[in-house]
Design a protein that fits this description.
Layout lengths: L6 H21 L20 E3 L3 E2 L10 E7 L2 E6 L4 E7 L5 E7 L10 E7 L2 E6 L4 E8 L2 E8 L6 E11 L2 E8 L4 E5 L4 E5 L12 H7 L2 E6 L4 E6 L4 E6 L5 E7 L5 E3 L7 E3 L4 E9 L3 E10 L8 E8 L4 E11 L1 E5 L4 E7 L6 E7 L3
Parallel strand pairs: 1-24
Antiparallel strand pairs: 2-27, 3-4, 4-5, 5-6, 7-8, 8-9, 9-10, 11-12, 12-13, 13-14, 15-16, 16-17, 17-18, 19-20, 21-22, 22-23, 23-24, 25-26, 26-27
Length: 362
C-alpha cells in the first residue's frame, strides 16, 4: 500500500496538474486561448441574456424552511426537513397553504428523509433516502395513496444516493455503483444494468465510494425523448445519456473537477475544500429544455450558496440559451402551463424567502 506522508503537498501538486490539463483542454476547445474566459461552462452559450425576473404573485408568508421544490397540477410543492410532515402544498397562483403530507416516522406510509421530488405519468415520486425506497403518491378523491418500491442493494449497487423514475416500471440510481456511475433498475428495484462513467479526467484509482461522494449531483429526465441529464453539484460537469439506447453518452461538458481530500473513512470518505466552485444547484426538465440552476463560482462563506444563472440545453445536449440572474437562488420548479420558471431564494434584506419568476422560453 502506498503511504503518502505529506498529503497537503500531494493534493497541491495534483491540483496544479489538474489545472494544467484543464487549461490545455480549454485551449483546444471551441474557444481560443486568446479569448477572455469568464467560465468555460458559461462560454458554451452564444445566446446570453439578462433574465427578466419578476416577483411571483405566490405569497411566501407561510413558507417554513424548504429545501426541495416542484410544481404539479397547479400546485407548488415544498419539501421541509424541519416539520412533522415533509411535504407542504400551496396554491400555484396565490400561495395559499392547501395542506401537508408525508409524515415523518418509521411506520407505514411514513418517511425518514426525503432526498428528492420527481414526477412520472400522473404520479408524484418521493425518494426516501432513509428507507432506500421510491414512493409513488397519487391522489384518490380527497385522500392520498402510497406505493413504495424498495431499492435493493448488492455488490453492483452498494448504496443509492439519488433515485428517480424513468417510467413506472424502470428507475435510475446514482450512488456507490461498481465500476460505473449509474444503475438502471427494474420495477421491483433490482439492478438491471450499469452504465456511465464519471467526468473526463476523474481519478480511476479512487474507490467506487469515493467517486460516488465526489461527483454527487442532480438528475433530470425527459420521458418523451428518453434522455437523461446528470450534473455535478461541485465543479463543472453535465452529461446527457440516451436511455432508448442503453444509456449511450450523447454529450459531455466537463471542465473543473471538485477539489477534495480523501479521509480514508468509509462513512465520510471525502472532505470538500473551501475553494471549490459550486456547480449545478438544481436541474429540471421541461418539454424542450434541460434547465440547470448554475453557479460556477467559489462560495464566499457558508451562507453564500445558490445559483445565479439559468443554463438551458436542448435534449440533444446542445447549449441553447443562458440567462443571468441578479440574485442567487437555491431551488427551481417548472410550470409549463403558464410558461414560467419559479425560483426560490432568501431575501438578502429581510432574511425571509423570495419567490421569483422567469418566462420559460419556447
Amino acid at each position: 500500500m502506498l503511504i503518502i506522508s505529506d498529503m497537503g503537498a500531494f493534493y497541491r501538486n495534483m491540483r496544479k496538474i489538474i489545472r494544467g490539463v484543464l487549461s490545455l483542454c480549454i485551449c483546444f476547445s471551441v474557444f481560443s486561448c486568446d479569448d477572455k474566459v469568464e467560465n468555460p461552462m458559461v462560454n458554451l452559450f452564444q445566446d446570453q441574456t439578462m433574465a427578466s425576473v419578476v416577483a411571483s404573485p405566490i405569497s411566501t408568508e407561510e413558507f417554513r424552511t424548504p429545501y426541495l421544490m416542484d410544481y404539479k397540477d397547479g400546485m407548488l410543492l415544498l419539501g421541509d426537513i424541519h416539520q412533522p410532515k415533509f411535504m407542504s402544498v400551496f396554491d400555484g397562483l396565490k400561495g395559499t397553504f392547501l395542506g401537508d403530507f408525508a409524515s415523518r416516522g418509521m411506520g407505514p406510509d411514513e418517511f425518514i428523509h426525503l432526498g428528492n421530488i420527481s414526477q412520472v405519468g400522473n404520479s408524484l415520486c418521493l425518494w426516501d433516502a432513509g428507507r432506500s425506497s421510491l414512493v409513488f403518491v397519487e391522489q384518490d378523491g380527497g385522500s392520498l395513496s402510497y406505493r413504495s418500491v424498495q431499492i435493493n442493494v448488492d455488490d453492483s449497487l452498494s448504496a443509492a444516493f439519488q433515485v428517480i423514475p424513468l417510467r413506472e416500471d424502470a428507475f435510475l440510481a446514482s450512488g456507490i455503483v461498481k465500476g460505473h456511475r449509474l444503475a438502471l433498475l427494474d420495477g421491483r428495484g433490482h439492478v438491471v444494468s450499469l452504465f456511465g462513467h464519471y467526468p473526463k479526467g476523474y481519478r480511476r484509482q479512487n474507490t467506487d465510494a469515493e467517486n460516488g461522494f465526489i461527483y454527487q449531483g442532480t438528475m433530470a429526465y425527459q420521458e418523451k425523448k428518453g434522455v437523461l441529464a446528470v450534473a455535478c453539484g461541485m465543479g463543472e460537469s453535465i452529461c446527457f445519456y440516451d436511455m432508448n439506447n442503453g444509456g449511450h453518452l450523447i454529450k459531455e461538458y466537463s471542465f473543473e473537477h471538485p477539489i477534495y481530500e480523501l479521509t480514508g473513512d468509509n462513512v465520510s470518505p471525502v472532505v470538500f475544500r473551501t475553494d471549490n466552485k459550486t456547480g449545478f444547484v438544481d436541474l429540471k426538465s421541461s418539454t424542450n429544455y434541460c434547465i440547470g440552476l448554475f453557479s460556477g463560482e467559489e462560495r464566499i462563506g457558508p451562507e453564500d450558496y445558490g445559483g445565479n444563472k439559468l443554463l438551458l440545453f436542448a435534449w440533444n445536449g446542445e447549449p441553447a440559451k443562458m440567462m443571468r440572474l441578479e440574485g442567487k437562488y437555491t431551488n427551481m420548479a417548472i410550470d409549463e402551463e403558464r410558461r414560467r420558471i419559479l425560483l426560490l431564494g432568501v431575501d438578502s434584506d429581510g432574511g425571509g424567502y423570495m419567490l421569483s419568476e422567469v418566462e420559460l422560453p419556447n
